[in-house]
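Customer escalation, tier 2.

The customer says the design service returned an amino acid string that "doesn't look like it belongs to this structure." They asked us to rerun it and document both sides in this ticket. The original structure tokens are below, unchanged.
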């Protein structure tokens, strides 16, 4: 079974071809992050327009690299939500156009389910056993889920304010680092002391929820105390600002909470493993800390190329839907769902 998928939920224009939900035939990602760096974040209208320009060349490249044409495919898939409305519309409309032209069934896939199914494109997939605790950490989401079987999730909790990746991006901006803040903070933190500042950790005891806005404010307060005249985002950081220590201490605080809560959930729900998915799962310190804290419990993290937004993960999720229900076809009349919750029916 071969599926071509399209993903345009945020600032990556992506298309990929996947076979049987496990084999990657092509995976093309055109990132717009250089375009958005000047704004310090994703500018929705700029993102949508860039998707329009890039989408067809990216689809053509994905087909070419997989050595297939539309007639060799069994289905098409596209990210239906959650994401930026203007961006999602470009991908969904392109996918509908291809579906009309090819007469192939089209599936509208949840972006976060895609992040989860990136794991099934790796060799580690054969080691997965359910229930699996899933820590979904991206720029828009932070969710703790219990995956009890394929395509079956129980939501344990999630962020009540900023997403983990959003906190990395906002603190990156405070520290004068380039957008996106996540990778920049990870790199900068390598040279820093993670214990120099004891930034606020929100435990939200008794729940599986997270909160990162207090941590961001705690970094801001430290900067305001030491550098009262510094205007973050508007000027270069003052010379001598201990950016590496600030980045390392922030990262440590964020990871401490993510790791501890994920492992405690895994223990309480007797999970057979922990999966970390979403853009923040690219963070090696997160991987290392989770593995160390989880002990003998297997920790699964997709390879770097599949951590960030891509269409291969959307194709993989679509394949698993087709394996479960071979006639799945969402037709041509479905709308985008910019705020789609993972567990709500569509
Ligand atoms: O999943 P993703 O590519 O897009 C969304 O669906 O949001 O996640 C992007 C987020 C950004 O906030 C980015 O800063 C963060 O993932 N990120 C990281 C790292 N790489 C990307 N955060 C921490 N450490 C990283 N190495
Ligand atoms: Zn994502």
């Amino acid at each position: 079974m071969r599926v071509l998928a399209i993903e345009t939920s945020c600032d990556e224009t992506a298309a990929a071809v996947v076979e049987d939900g496990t084999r990657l035939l092509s995976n093309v990602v055109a990132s717009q992050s250089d375009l958005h760096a000047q704004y310090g974040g994703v500018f929705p209208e700029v993102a949508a327009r860039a998707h329009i320009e890039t989408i067809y060349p990216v689809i053509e490249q994905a087909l070419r690299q997989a050595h297939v044409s539309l007639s060799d495919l069994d289905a098409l898939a596209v990210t239906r939500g959650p994401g930026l409305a203007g961006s999602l519309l470009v991908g969904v409309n392109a996918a509908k156009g291809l579906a009309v032209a090819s007469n192939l069934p089209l599936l509208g896939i949840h972006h976060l389910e895609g992040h989860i199914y990136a794991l099934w494109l790796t060799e580690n997939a054969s080691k997965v056993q359910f229930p699996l605790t899933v820590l979904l950490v991206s720029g828009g989401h932070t969710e703790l889920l219990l995956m009890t079987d394929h395509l079956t999730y129980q939501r344990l909790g999630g962020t009540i304010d900023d997403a983990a990746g959003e906190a990395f991006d906002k603190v990156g901006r405070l520290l004068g680092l380039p957008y996106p803040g996540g990778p920049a903070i990870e790199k900068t933190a390598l040279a820093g002391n993670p214990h120099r500042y004891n930034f606020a950790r929100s435990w939200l005891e008794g729940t599986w929820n997270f909160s990162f806005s207090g941590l961001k404010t705690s970094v801001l307060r430290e900067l305001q105390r030491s550098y009262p005249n510094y205007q973050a985002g508007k000027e270069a950081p003052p010379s001598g600002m201990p950016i590496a220590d600030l980045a390392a201490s922030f990262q440590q605080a964020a990871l401490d909470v993510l790791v501890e809560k994920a492992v405690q959930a895994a223990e309480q729900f007797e999970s057979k493993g922990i999966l970390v998915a979403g853009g923040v799962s690219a963070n090696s310190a997160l991987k290392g800390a989770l593995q160390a804290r989880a002990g003998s419990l297997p920790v699964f993290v997709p390879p770097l190329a599949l951590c960030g937004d891509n269409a291969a993960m959307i194709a993989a999720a679509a394949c698993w839907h087709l394996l479960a229900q071979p006639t799945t076809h969402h037709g041509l009349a479905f709308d985008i769902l910019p705020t789609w919750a993972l567990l709500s029916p569509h």
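Tier 2 assessment: The sequence is consistent with the input. Strands lie at 2-7, 12-19, 23-31, 75-81, 106-110, 132-137, 142-149, 152-158, 273-277, 299-300. The longest strand covers residues 23-31. Sent an explanation to the customer and offered a walkthrough call.
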